[in-house]
Amino acid sequence: MFQVIGGRSIQVARLLVPRSAVLVEAVRGRKSRTDPVAKSKEGRIKVPPPVDPVEMVVLKERFTEYQMMMRALRLEFKEEVLRKKYEEETGSLAEERARQEATEHRTLMAFNNQENLRMLKLRILRIQKEKEEAERKKVEAAIQCEQEQQESIKEKERDILKLQEEAKNFITLENLDQRIEEALDNPKNYNFAIDKEGRVVKQTMLQ
Amino acid sequence: MTPEFRLKRRRHKILLYFVQHPQDNPANIMVHLSSLLLKKYHGGYVVIRLALAGHKQANRPFYRIVAAYNKRARDGKYIEQLGSYDPLPNIYNEKLVSFNFDRIKYWIGCGAHPTKPVAKLLGLAGFFPLHPMMITEAERRRAQTELTATGAEDGLQEGQNVA
């Protein structure tokens, strides 16, 4: 039935005269209802504490009074709380506050609208400028493109002319023999010597 | 199954936290916005009771008068602190109590129940009427002291008569 406890626990029934040096507690519910009664408690009849009828009557009177007073107080406090809430929501101060807030709101909205208009104008200007810039750039790009096209055409024409001119020196089937004979007759020597000072010597050992 | 075991089991189940205002008042008057993460108790109500504080020191109790939900632990999370009570007398032989009457009025108006010791303290303070049990206890003690005084007187008288 008793347990030894070290620290603090919620259901501690401290024994007034602890015979043992250790603090013991009575833990509720160690036995279930089917367990047999202890030997020391066999003939025990639990008796409620004796009631004095005179005192009981007086007590009942006092309790009814007390409860009436408590109920009255409770209602009073409830009413006060409700009144405060009402005052807060629909009192004179609340109305003033609401009016002030409304005026403030209106001024702020007006300011906001003005700002919006201003920003709108600025934005329109900016967009216009950007559009003009874009147009200009497009035109410039188109001009550039055209110029480049023209230049490439000219380049190609030049290349064609160059090729035509070079074609006069090409070796064809008719010139073949002639050219071979020419090449054999004129041996070309590409060897040369150069020193550190940069003097070029083209005279080498002819083969 | 012991009752403590049952309580522990139930504690594990209630782990849902509703983010909404609780309807704690039986009269459903108003909703307090002290914290949005208050637990929603089914059929729970608010009590004004004493909660033990300062558990780091043994043998030195100090109580806080607190508005809390009925189902919460005695020293657990409370809604608002409404005062304090020091049960040990100080050097001038006074036990110090403090109350925040404005908030107590608010909570009782919202439907909170004070416990017996809190009602007794408030009765002594004059905010509530005196609790009947306090008056009866005082009368009983006075009768007891008178009995012992008369008994001592009788004993003295008898001793004198005998002597």
TrEMBL record, chain A:
Pfam families the UniProt entry points to: MRP-S26
Primary location: mitochondrion
Alphabetically ordered keywords of this record: Coiled coil, Mitochondrion, Ribonucleoprotein, Ribosomal protein, Transit peptide
UniProt subcellular location: Mitochondrion
A GO cellular component annotation in the UniProt record: mitochondrial small ribosomal subunit
Coiled-coil segments on the chain, per record: 117-173
Similarity comment: Belongs to the mitochondrion-specific ribosomal protein mS26 family.
This protein's name: Small ribosomal subunit protein mS26
From TrEMBL, chain B:
N-terminal signal peptide: none
Similarity comment text for this entry: Belongs to the bacterial ribosomal protein bS16 family.
A Gene Ontology term for the protein's cellular component: mitochondrial small ribosomal subunit
A Pfam family it matches: Ribosomal_S16
Biological processes per GO annotation: mitochondrial translation
Organism per entry: Perca fluviatilis (European perch)
Name under which the protein is recorded: Small ribosomal subunit protein bS16m
Keyword Phosphoprotein belongs to the record: no
Keywords, alphabetical: Mitochondrion, Ribonucleoprotein, Ribosomal protein
The organism's place on the tree of life at top rank: Eukaryota
A molecular-function term among this protein's GO annotations: structural constituent of ribosome
InterPro entries from the UniProt entry: Ribosomal_bS16, Ribosomal_bS16_dom_sf
Localization terms from the record: Mitochondrion
